[in-house]
């Protein structure tokens, strides 16, 4: 049996109790899992501090000295802490314990030379170290020391139960000795040679017990590459299997509707990017495989018309399509826009939202079932069980980040039985559109089951939006500017942060803002609309309509207008408390202007006091209009986990690689994985035997990206 499969409690020094802790806290079940617990960082244990050298930097230090006094301090509520006075020849400090006091008290030796190690913090003039690691100087001297001592990921619970870094270090040493470091190679020789990688064994030894900086770097590179490489292998094989196995409806015909629209009714020439993306989608639709594609395009890049043209292809092949949007406003707008674009075509298009009347609803249900309805546009209402299609061939989902995985899978489930698939159901093609661009490599890793198309070009003639950052104290100047713009016939958005529609505070901010704006922009000269999440859908639509028709000059709103809203005459976007918004949200909001021929502006209003991150966000917005660049900064500020949401980034569960920092390695890994699978799709060549074994092993453990099926 493979030694690495041994349950962790059998490791000397672990036992059932610690084994249980390791399983629960760090998900370590077997020897092999412990080997893959990589240090977060390394610290220098060859350096010693004197007490009078300490500074309040919250960093880890080691100090040689003696405990000269011990006392227990009652803290109330039956709790107490243990405080030891520790001194060297330069001064004294305190060592403190809050847990396991009884046991520790018994083990402490007075007036014996010790080495203590831990984080120091300062309280008043006294430095203290909580729950330090301690060692007798004599023992410490004989232990092997390296300038790079690993610090392992841990949890409070582990620490409190005495499984601290030192203990984990010991376990690791024990593990290496029990297994004699017999770790077999997992990567094919060709790749090892091409990238000049060190062996698996050397990598594991040096990541846990680095001999020097250079070997550590090589070990980390090798392990990061391997981790990302296996993920890519998984992704790519999975994608191949999907294309192979999951049949889609082949849309073979480019017929009357598409051709007529393309030749006679395009309101403008498509950009090259739009043409390219259409071609990519058409290729997918025409093949036998089910399309599952992410269409990324910055705000205003013209995704809607691409969606329409795909739906026309569906119609040409006698299939129905649906377009699902995250809000009623947006669904309405899509319905109006698409109806307008397609008005010369003989196509039946309808709108279904939460506020669709029962009578209309009944007609829609009927027409969907008998197949006379070609395109249905709507909100979540589309995925209700009552909604049944005769033959749904294409599902378009707009502004993907607002929908969860679950909702996508509900659409997928509206599959139709198909004669071409022996009566088994065939899922519709899925096109997911998003204006929250994420770097392509990351997209491929996070949405492994989606192919990615990118519209990386804006329609011609757009004037870049000018963005400025103003402190609240300059409000009068800003208002003056708004009045000038309104005098020129333009319209203005003023947006308040309402991160959670339920938060009373935010709502109050909005209403206060509305009142003061009403005073500063009085009737009859100015008229103001207001839009927020607590309004009835019908009222929202009415306000939106008034603004879109130019009947009001100012739209005071919450982020309900964040996505998709299109009023070309609006040329100024004022964002209040801009520091409270994330970068992608700011970019989305800014995208509401700059849609017409006029020069547009975005004004970010903030308080004087800003955190470093907020400053970076404001500077980034002022510097660039490029959604991809903004996404990169966002990624750096927040990390991928935050951006994609826990659920989606969590599945990656990376042990050592970092999708942002190690993007170059990711690129390599992807490239080599594609190359390898092209030559040997099932990894059956003898030189790939070990690779396949490791691959199957990993796939068993981590089945990733099962979003849709
Ligand atoms: P988004 O990608 O943000 O959904 P839209 O599809 O709403 O963008 O398009 C934004 C605006 O650009 C719309 O008014 C649309 O009519 C216009 N548009 C789209 N494509 C082109 C093009 N190729 N040339 C000129 N205008 C275009
Ligand atoms: Mg859009």
Identify the notable features of this structure and list them briefly.
six-stranded parallel β-sheet; alpha/beta; binds magnesium ion; disordered C terminus; binds adenosine-5'-diphosphate; globular; 41% helix; seven-stranded parallel β-sheet; 709 residues; OB fold (Dihydrolipoamide Acetyltransferase, E2P); Rossmann fold
Multimerization status: single chain
Please count the helical segments: 25
Widest beta sheet: strand line-up:
11-12-10-13-16-9-17
Helix share of residues? 40-55%
Q: In percent, how much strand structure appears in the residues?
A: 15-25%
Give average pLDDT, whole number. Answer: 86
Structural class: alpha/beta
Number of strands: 23
Which residues form runs of ≥5 with pLDDT under 50?
A: 642-651, 704-709
Name the CATH superfamily classification of the largest domain.
P-loop containing nucleotide triphosphate hydrolases
Major sheet: size, sense and barrel closure? 7 strands, parallel
What is the CA-CA span between the terminal residues?
Answer: 35 Å
Please, how many domains? 4
Do you know the CATH architecture of the largest domain?
A: 3-Layer(aba) Sandwich
Query: What compounds are bound to the protein?
Result: adenosine-5'-diphosphate, magnesium ion
Give the topology.
Elements: H1 15-26, H2 31-35, E1 41-43, E2 60-76, E3 79-88, E4 91-97, H3 101-107, E5 113-123, E6 126-130, E7 133-136, H4 137-142, E8 149-151, H5 156-160, H6 165-179, H7 189-194, H8 200-208, H9 213-245, H10 256-265, H11 272-286, E9 292-297, H12 303-316, E10 320-324, H13 328-341, E11 349-352, H14 358-370, E12 375-378, E13 392-398, H15 405-412, E14 416-417, E15 425-426, E16 429-434, H16 440-446, E17 451-455, E18 466-471, H17 475-487, E19 491-495, H18 504-520, E20 528-531, H19 537-548, E21 554-557, E22 570-575, H20 583-590, E23 601-606, H21 612-623, H22 627-644, H23 646-650, H24 663-679, H25 689-701
Parallel strand pairs: 4-6, 9-16, 9-17, 10-12, 10-13, 11-12, 13-16, 18-23, 19-21, 19-22, 20-21, 22-23
Antiparallel strand pairs: 1-8, 2-3, 2-5, 3-4, 5-6, 5-7, 14-15
The structure holds adenosine-5'-diphosphate and magnesium ion.
Adenosine-5'-diphosphate binds at residues 268, 270-271, 274, 297, 299-305, 435, 459, 566, 595.
EC number: 5.6.2.4
Pfam family, one: RecG_wedge
Organism: Flavobacterium urocaniciphilum
